[in-house]
Amino acid sequence: MKRILVLAAVVGLVLAAQAGLAGNKQLMTEKMAEQDLKRNIVEAVIGYKVRSESRMGLTEDPSYKAETKAAAVIKGIKIDKMIYDKDKDIALCFGHIELGDVVNVVGDLVRFKGVTVEGFGFGTMTEAARPPLMALRAAVVNAHDELAKLLVGEKILSQSTMENFILTKDVNRSKVCAAIFGAYIPNPGLNSPNRGWGWDETGNAFVKLEVDARKVRDVLGNLIIYKGPNIIEVTGRGSQTDDLSGDTPGSMVRDSGSKTKYMSIDAPTAPAGGETAPKTP
């Protein structure tokens, strides 16, 4: 009887240990964060093309759409730190690249001497944790568009009709098409003073971009003549929810064999079902 009890206890311990084994969700979340880091560094170093269109007339259905595209072969990106929040399933990856000769988005060869570009990236495999990360990416895209508007300019179409002192038609549209490289997020570190990204108290995201205006070209590759400050900054915004359509989306531990740190990531996520998310003791 004692031997049976001992065997049962051993089996129970083995099953408990297996139940506590980590799956692949964390690995995939960290991989997403690493890939996002690489994308952000490519956009900063090689550049991106941005196109946007807005309709803001008083008699139109207001809409705003911006698209960015970047494609490049890049090597030498190094991962400096990986942070993982087990409760939210959010990974935050930091890394950098030391630059040499780079062919940018408009095909120009740019020779960098000892320049280091830092970046970060987020990832999650959990649907409930995606809204703040999606808002942050939307803020990046908006910042790209705002930078293009400031440096390259935008095409404005305005048309208004008034009948008997009543506005019957009002069209106010804009279009942007540009190629920009060298724009970067200032102070990207998690605890950096004046960090260039984050969320406000409402959960909306913000991203700041800085660029040397002397390095900007339009979509045809022509150098932009800009007579303002050499280094300029814009701020992009992004939201977690779509109020217009009515759709509503839903302690540190370090493994000695990896660069991952386990800690809480202060992203404004909403717990599923509106309940308070349990905290890990």
Name the descriptors:
3 helices, alpha+beta, globular, 281 residues, 5-stranded antiparallel beta sheet
Could you characterize the architecture of this molecule?
This protein has 281 residues and is α+β, with helices and mostly antiparallel strands. The protein contains three helices and 15 strands. It has helices spanning 2-19, 25-45, 130-151, and strands at 48-55, 63-69, 78-85, 90-98, 101-103, 109-111, 116-123, 155-163, 166-180, 197-199, 205-212, 217-218, 231-238, 253-254, 260-262. The strands form four sheets. Strands 1, 2, 8, 9 and 12 form a five-stranded antiparallel β-sheet that branches. A hairpin with a 5-residue loop joins strand 10 (197-199) and strand 11 (205-212). The two termini are 37 Å apart.
Query: What is the helix content?
Result: 10-25%
CA radius of gyration: 24 Å
Report the major sheet: 5 strands, antiparallel
Total number of strands? 15
Q: What is the multimeric organization of the chains shown?
A: single chain
